[in-house]
Amino acid sequence: MVRRDRLRRMREWWVQVGLLVVPLLAAYLHIPPPQLSPALHSWKSSGKFFTYKGLRIFYQDSVGVVGSPEIVVLLHGFPTSSYDWYKIWEGLTLRFHRVIALDFLGFGFSDKPRPHHYSIFEQASIVEALLRHLGLQSRRINLLSHDYGDTVAQELLYRFKQNRSGRLTIKSLCLSNGGIFPETHRPLLLQKLLKDGGMLSPILTRLMNFFVFSRGLTPVFGPYTRPSESELWDMWAGIRNNDGNLVIDSLLQYINQRKKFRRRWVGALASVSIPIHFIYGPLDPVNPYPEFLELYRKTLPRSTVSILDDHISHYPQLEDPMGFLNAYMGFINSF
């Protein structure tokens, strides 16, 4: 009798816990995305959208130096957006006639369909479609990329090497802190869990919040160059826009794609004759020094490299915008 009474009380306790937890969890899962800061709202307002196969893609297109034929296209990293380039944007407009950046599909203000098979190949096709939309498909393009964008640039470079009609004509390529070699790439623990979590991944993406995101991203910045809380909120707002946190696990399949297509993408870098440069934040835990740099120089001996200060890490364009911009200008003005 005592045992039966104890079991009854335990069942009642769990029912009460469930009645409390279920509405709290439901409310948590329906927390609206954060409001855009004035700066991020201004970035969105000054941009435009074009349609790719029924999907809206956000982009920025600024006219800079009058009379210059030079065009630069910026390709952002994971998990952020074209807003990563805002600190060097004005400096680029003083050198280039057109400065163009987009939010890849699944990122920033672009559409984030689900379910969807996100791939580097599709992102490269979106870049090509954007330049056709802008009437620039026949112009020579300078590519400046970071992280995830490095791999998209590699695919664009492969297509350029094949000399197929309708592909970009690439004048130069500058990469930065991207995992272009799968063997030296060290993804974060959260990335591994989301990428290979199976049935657990959709649950993790729904439970992800600003606290988890900020604690996961901050370690890839240098100790003296970490983003402020407001800057982290801007990044998180871009991810939460259009429920982007729910597609992170799908986007992360690019890591597996890098392994599968290593020969294609690393081979493209090694076989073209255009100027190639790499801007490197050496404190990067994702592409660690010296392993990454040694392999890069061995594989691409003709490429030039700029190594920023010792404390600069995975986001060099945000951590050291002047150093990054000076390194890029030095490269662009060298040919």
From TrEMBL:
Where in this chain does the record put each AB hydrolase-1 domain? 71-321
Alphabetically list the UniProt keywords: Endoplasmic reticulum, Hydrolase, Membrane, Transmembrane, Transmembrane helix
Write down the membrane topology: Multi-pass membrane protein
Return the similarity comment.
Belongs to the AB hydrolase superfamily.
Pfam hit, one: Abhydrolase_1
Which GO cellular component does the record give, naming just one? endoplasmic reticulum membrane
Q: Which Gene3D superfamilies match?
A: alpha/beta hydrolase (3.40.50.1820)
Q: Which GO terms describe its biological process?
A: acylglycerol catabolic process
Give the transmembrane region(s): 12-31
GO MF entry, a single one: monoacylglycerol lipase activity
Q: The organism's lineage?
A: Eukaryota, Metazoa, Chordata, Craniata, Vertebrata
Name it: Mesoderm-specific transcript homolog protein isoform X1
Places the protein is found: Endoplasmic reticulum membrane
Q: Which domain of life is it from?
A: Eukaryota
| Gene that produces this protein | MEST
